[in-house]
Amino acid sequence: MVSTLVIFSPSRTLQPSQIKTSAPSDRNFGILKEHSVGTTHDNREVTKFADIIFLACKPYQIQDVAKEISADLSTERHLVVSCAAGLPMINLESVSILNLIRLAHTYS
């Protein structure tokens, strides 16, 4: 699955050690590793690590990623932010992601 999750724990000052990202290959990890950002190929690992989760993948991948991580999400702990363009909220709500924010780019 081709996807990326960028995840961090909230604090007043965010340190690289508080950020973890996931992707299927190491191709985009170089610069992140240079800055001591955690990397993995396991989306569930980053979900267990973080309180705030950014789903930053292609719209056609988002439901698979959401299904993969949904068992590890807690409504008391997690906030999920979808960055996928053109994807209705109902697509993510159908896989039990309740604390969800959708970022949308608007053109003026």
Automatic annotation (TrEMBL):
All residue ranges annotated as the Pyrroline-5-carboxylate reductase catalytic N-terminal domain in the record: 18-86
Superkingdom, taxonomy of origin: Eukaryota
The keyword Oxidoreductase belongs to this UniProt entry's keyword annotation: yes
InterPro entries registered for this protein in UniProt: NAD(P)-bd_dom_sf, P5C_Rdtase_cat_N
Stated name of the protein: Pyrroline-5-carboxylate reductase 3
Swiss-Prot/TrEMBL keywords: Oxidoreductase
PANTHER family according to UniProt: PYRROLINE-5-CARBOXYLATE REDUCTASE (PTHR11645), PYRROLINE-5-CARBOXYLATE REDUCTASE 3 (PTHR11645:SF0)
Record organism: Holothuria leucospilota (Black long sea cucumber)
GO biological process: L-proline biosynthetic process
Keyword match Isomerase: no
GO MF, one annotated term: pyrroline-5-carboxylate reductase activity
Family: Belongs to the pyrroline-5-carboxylate reductase family.
